Structures are given as structure tokens and as C-alpha cells.
Amino acid sequence: MAKSQKFLGWINVLFTERYLSTERVNCFILKKCQHLSTFVKLRRLDRFSDLDLQNILRIFDLTFQMGWITQVPGFPFEMREEYNSKSSNLDWQAASMDGKLIHKGVLASDSAAYLLKAVKDGQINELAEKNMELLLRHVEVKRTQSLQKYEQEMSRVQIWKEKCNFAILFSRYAYQKKDWRYLNAALKLNEWLWKEYHRPFSNRPSLPYLTALVEQEFTLKKMEQC
Amino acid sequence: MLKVVLFAPIRTSLYSRLILHGLLHDEQVQVVGIVVRTPWNMQRIRSEFSRDGVRLAQKFVRKFLLREKAFNNVKVDNLASAARRAALPDAHLQQLAKQFAIPFRSVKDLSEEKCTEFLKEITPDIIVFTGGGLVRQAVLDIPKLGVLNCHTGVLPPFRGMDVVEWTAMVNAVNNIGFGVTLHYMDKGVDTGEILLVKKIETDVSDTFISIRMRLEVLMVNTMLEGVHAIADNLICSSPQNTQDGKQYFVMHPRIKCIAEQRLEKQLSRN
After folding, report:
1. Which residues is B148 bridged to in the sheet?
2. CATH number at residue B258
3. Do B72 and A183 touch (CB under 8 A)?
């Protein structure tokens, strides 16, 4: 083999793209699920908000559907309406800036939640589709610097939760539209969030991130079968 | 005579040198300028690293250090074999510019004042873009006919990055296929008017790497054919309907693994 080829091969190995492997993600999810399961069994759920409890239910539901857990723990409460604090889907159109949820890199507050509700209700209209495309471009172009600026000032933890919501949104939208580009963005977003989460003293809440990872793995599994 | 300016990403780019070589041999064309981006500026390194990540290091070694040597022992048609066929001189763009007395500019950014002033001075009919990053509207407006780019995918369906891989991912190998598109650049990403679409045949032994290598050769030929046809007034551009396609972005490695499996499956069905 020519020396140049050997050199190129060596460089390729040296600079092989490092990415979050399936194994690491799965291991993280299972570990966190076990932890959550203990909370449920001990009925120590009062520390969670309604939205958190919805996320916990969703996590167990999806991991069960994927065959990662054999049993969904019994919950001592009734299923509540997801994002019931949000008003109707149409409201976000009015709330958005000139019909755009993102304008010059600044996002309308709660955009992810509004769009998640639209996805859940099957109310993705032309305007929502345009906004999804704008968000996709924003995340892909700005990468780690994306989803940082909001209309209203937000704390680091609030921004973290919003980013997790965007990752969930991308996964769900990808599945609904069978559009791999959004899952591609969700994978990248979750990878950047992984680094942020594992940073020393980051103190980021794990539940929204766990939900985002479970949604990603579920969508990937389902879309691979399509 | 069509007055052409060449935009290149680096002065050693094999793709750019092959195109310049072809243009210099075209009697209908006069190369009136060469603009090359300087690789050693932090702004460029930062922006390309944020886009390509570690792939930038591979690209740097392959295109800047190894050049033709990177293709040694490669079985499929590639830029190095095309260079041998064309008897491409072993000289970089600046040396070729000096040899053929073509005005040469080295710029930090293709949209900087130094570049626009140079272009306004030489008033080209066409700019042949072979890389070098974003081209702003102020530059797009200068040539009489426009800025030509050859995209490594079939337009309008596949705009943007990694479109070879995305073609396989969305199971379009057998209905749309792999190819290149010569188009005028506009302010969007690969949304300008289309001049030519050329496709390649594939076989079961193909991989993303072999397809990309063959497409690079096709890009050179398509660009030269397009420029010649424009000079002869034999070609018209047609606008794209962006609704007929999507913009794609750099593919995540986990999706790329699925795309590789899908490519294999689709090629075996071919």
C-alpha cells in the first residue's frame, strides 16, 4: 500500500467522527428508568410537576413499547391531559413574530410547547410546517449556539428544558411526517445536550433530557422499520 | 468570447485546477480572473469547523496535503485519473495564473471589498464557483449572466449537504438516482435556475465513497460542458420549484449507518 494511503488511513482513524453510540444512550436510559421506577414504587411522586409526571408516563410507555422494560410500574394517579396549561394551537400563530416562531435567531417563548401540542393534536398546518423548517435550519446552521435566545429572558435551566422540548418535538415531528431530517437534527441536538448534561456541576434536570432521548430512540426504531 | 472568473477554495484544489485547465483549452472562453480564498484565516477555520467538525481535518489532509496522492490505488474513476487523462500540469492556481497572465487575487472572504472591486473592474460574464464558502448577493449581482455552481446531487429534489447519502436514505437510488446539477447560484441554498442535470449509473459494488469520486469527475465535465454551451448560446436555464425538493444537512453518523444499509439494498435491486 502506498505511504500516502497509509497516512490517509491513519488520519481517518485519528479524526473519525466521535458520536454518542446507541449503547451509551441505551445504558443511560435504562439506568435512569430504574431510578424512576424506584420513585414510582415508593410513591414518592409529589416532588414532580404534572408535566414531569406526564413525561415519566411517556418514558415508561415508550421503553415498554421498545421492549426495553418488561413492565410499566403502576401509577397512583389518573392520566392527565398533556400540556393542558397551554391554550389552543391557533394561539401560537398570533403569539409568534410575523407568523415566525424564530426571527433573527430569537425564539418566541414556549415555541416548542406550542408546536408539540400542534403535533399531538394533528394540527400541523402550513404555517406550523414553515416554522418547523425554520427551526430545523436554525439548529443545523447555528449548531451548539442554536436555541439560546428567547423573546423573554429565561434562566439556564429553563433554556435547558426548552432545548429538551425541541429535541422531543423534532423526534415526534420526524415520526409523524416520516422525515428523517428532523430525526437527524434531534440526534445532533441530544448529543450537544449530552455534553451539557455531563459537564461537571451542570446541575441540569435529567427528566426532560431522558424524555428527549427516549423519544429519539423510539422514533429511530419505528422509522427504521418503515 | 465569454469572460469567465474562477472562484476556488484553495489554490491547490484539484477540482478547481481541472476546471481551469478545461476553460483554458476552450476557444470560446477567456479566463479573466482567478479568486482564491486564503485557507489561513481564523474566521474561515471557525466557520468550516462548526459546519464539518472533525471532517474538516480529513478534508484538509486529503485536499491540501495529499492532493492527487490521496487517490493512489483507487479503482473507480476519480479526479486524479481525470487529471492524468487531461495531462493537467503539476502547478497550483497561482502558478497557472502567472503562466497564462491571468489576474489573480487571494482573499479572506469571497464577499470582501477586495474581491468585489476586482470583479467590478474586470466585468465578467460568468463566475465559475468551485468552492470557497458563501457568496453574498453583492457578488452574485456583478457578473452579467450569473455565478455557476455544480451541486453534487440531483436538483430540485436534493438540496444542501450530504445529498449522496440522503438519496439512499430516502430510498431514491432507483427512481431519482445519483447525479450532479449545474445551476446559477442565488441567495438560497442550491435554489437557483438549473442548466444541466447529469446522472451516473451505479452497480452493486458501489459505496458512498465510490459514488462521490465518480460524481466529482462528472462535476468537472458538466461544468465545462455548461460553460461551453453558454458561450455558444446553446443552453437555457429553467427555474426550480423549491416545493419539489428539500434542503438536507450534514448526516448524523447513526443515520449514515442506516443509509449505508439502504444503499446496499437498493443497489442489489438495481
Report:
1. B128, B184
2. 3.40.50.12230
3. no
Give the number of other CB atoms < 10 A from CB of residue B229. 16
β-pairing, B146-151 with B126-129? parallel
Interface of A with B in 20-59 (CB under 8 A): 22
Measured over the CA atoms of residue B101, residue B106, residue B111 and residue B114, the dihedral's sign is negative
DSSP letter at A100 equals B
**DSSP labels, A156-223:** HHHHHHHHHHHHHHHHHHHHHHT-HHHHHHHHHHHHHHHHHHTSTT----HHHHHHHHHHHHHHHHHH
* pTM exceeds 0.95 for this model: no
DSSP annotation of A18 reads P
Instruction: Give the residue with greater pLDDT, A85 vs A192.
Output: A192
Residues paired with residue A100 on neighbouring β-strands, in sequence order: A97
Which ranges of B123-252 would DSSP assign to H, the alpha helix?
137-140, 163-169, 208-231
ipTM: 0.89
Instruction: Give the closest residue to B146 by CA, choosing from B155, B157, B135.
Output: B135
pLDDT over threshold 80, residue B209: yes
**More confident call, A76 vs B236:** B236
Domain coverage including residue B96? 2-269
A54 pLDDT tier (thresholds 50, 70, 90): confident
Tell me the C-alpha distance between B232 and B223, whole Å: 14
pLDDT for the residue numbered A90 = 46
Instruction: Enumerate the residues of chain A whose CB falls inside 8 A of the CB of residue B247.
Output: 137
Integer angstrom CA distances of residue A180 from B60, B112, B170, B171: 29, 37, 8, 12
